[in-house]
Amino acid sequence: MRVALELRDFAKYPFLKESQQFMGRNTDIIEEFLCSSPGKIALRHAMDRVRAALRSPGQQDDMRDIPSDNLGVKISVSGYVLARIIVSCTKDRSLIERLARYEAQRAFRFLIDEEEDKRVFIAGSIGINSAGADLPVIQYVEIVAGLHEERWRLVNRDVWNGRVRVSPVEMNELLREQVRVILLRQLPLSVPETVCGLLLPQTGEIQGLFQQTMLEQFGAVEEDSFPPCMQSLMAALTGGTNIPHAGRFALTAFLHNIGMAASDIIALYCRAPDFDISKTQYQVEHISGRSGTEYTAPSCAAMRTYGICINSDALCEKINHPLNYYRTRKKKEKKQESGGSTGTSQS
Amino acid sequence: MNPATLEFVKQRFSDYYRTGTLAAPPSTGQREWAFVFFDPDYPEIRMRRHTGFAGNDDLLEYVRNMAPAHLFYSVAYYSMPHAPTMPEKGWLGADLVFDLDADHIVRGPYDMMLSRVKEETAKIIAMLTGELGFAEREIGLVFSGGRGYHVHIREIAVRGWGSAERRELIDYVCGIGIDPGIVLSMPSPSPRGWHQRYIAALTEYLLVLEGMDQKDAVADLLTLGGVGKVTAEEFLKRATGLRAALATGPSSVNLKDATTGRVIRALADQKEGKFATLLREKAALADEPVTTDIKRLIRMPTSLHGGSGFRVTPLTLRELDDFDPLTDAVVFGTRDVRVESRAALSMPLLGSSYQVSKGESVVPEALAVFLCCRGLAGIAGRA
Question: Which residue of A has its CA nearest to B271?
Fold first, then answer.
């Protein structure tokens, strides 16, 4: 079935092959484009996009009016391209991930209001046959591998004859995830140094802003807000008990993710009975990304597989990742501090 | 292993490798190969890794000459499999493998462990083909030569998978991470897969509770995290009704209810205990780290397992039912060999049952190889 895409669809779904083809007819040399006046407008759009990507998902912007004129669409799609170039220049994996997530969410919000045949067309262009009520197991697994909620786990699904049943609402969510994964796979783009040089003011601003966002979200390390699994691992460690390798990995990655310095993490391990300074240093630095891969603490599902999901409490049931637990607890405490200093007890 | 025993086993292995039918896995040239040889200090294991071969002929010639005690290759495909470090190898993908090892399932006499792990293997095959949709021709089934079976899936679509994707499948076959709330409310044309297995396990557990003395049943529930006496007693009163609800409409079970919800969720978190056991019986207990390791080394089918002398035997799915490792994986003969056994033991092999007394006795060659490989006996004197 042929679906006619309109100009505004290119602005809504800039990652489509068709959108890029549309741009292809308009492309100039990027250095020249950046100095032109449409280029400057596009750059402002790009910065808006990256800033929006840094805000947490709940406070992302309302969708602006989608342009439907040739120039407007060109500027919008250029903004998408430039935003990708800017985060690629920062070489910061977390920033890149934020942008991919933002772009996927943005497309998702258009997609849910789209007519059925157009949605099926767009799904098809990212490799998903969304017309049915199920997906092949292999494709389903590839899409949900990055999703942490329990409801996506294969074991919690209706699986039969190589197909996984998916409701229409879930199908849209899976499309969003597929867009995110595809965009993430494309990044970072290899951008020539000269172009990154021209974008230095923009990358500088974004990196500063990102650091500020991270500080607001995580701030100082507060052991009281650790999830029970990490508290148990910490207690075992400081109590001088040996913890298994999976536990060490999980704890180290967690402490690194919440911003603890490698030297402080190593100091903690001094208390383990089999402490070996050079080995510990190597392991901690490896997990903290010196080798090039930065590790993220295991999800609750993985913690369970390793058998180190310990003492889970009520909050654990609402979250799917130890880091979310920590973030949620810290946010709650912050609220209580700022809101509840009247000092009356509740009962 | 004393020199005479080592020499005996080494010669038997050489004999097999000279004349036996060997089959290299696909893409020999992209695999890392690893060997353990009958060195003088064998069975102390010194593995020689990071070996590469241009193709099947090179590999098989090497193997026939060297007659290794153990022979492994990587489930991974590499651009430079012989490179000395993992990053330099250039990972290109990996077969999807499942390892069913009786060691992780049951302890007991060898033949009992073997028959138990065979059941587990039949379960995983049923899940892989019936539920997960792998075609029979994509599934390579192999008796490991030790205490279990390996399943190799070489389907190209899964080769690029990382550990996270592989974890979805291993958690599925093992039934790890079931969320009762989600599974019970599953809209399904008919109960099947884990929907059915979970409901069956819960129903069986309720039956067990109902059949127990009130005191014992409460005690069993009290072992659950977060369940106190009041909750336990109330839950017991509801057991029969709950079981009826599971039979007629599982989605009507209300987990928002404090008592029902708490107990059923606590049961799902249980590691040991009656319910965990009932659920585990329905799972296929494959070894989790093997499947999620994308660089795992695995035994080459048609090689010999140095810890038993048995052949790592490839099987078709249809052959599994009638396969008896203690006959079908035995490659050695029945000529007499005089061994000295460390202890009295009995062992079925090649369709007969052998009683070996402590000290010297004469046994068929195949049994001698097995006992020597396992370290249960040595070659007597200088036979």
Answer: A307
